[in-house]
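Worked example 3 (structure in, sequence out).
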């Protein structure tokens, strides 16, 4: 996933394929939420051990 700004404006890409800004933002948010959930699970396991 990447976002680039050039003379024509913003260009959003996922896996090398150009996508709309909305699609890019939805995928980005979904990836952040998945990472956040994984971190919460790890933290819960740590608290179980304490």
């Amino acid at each position: 996933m990447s976002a680039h700004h050039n003379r024509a404006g913003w260009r959003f890409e996922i896996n090398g394929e150009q996508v709309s800004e909305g699609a890019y933002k939805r995928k980005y948010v979904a990836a952040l939420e998945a990472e956040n959930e994984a971190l919460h699970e790890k933290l819960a396991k740590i608290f179980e051990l304490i």
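Notes: Residues 21-49 form the longest helix (29 residues). Residues 25 and 48 are 35 Å apart (CA to CA).
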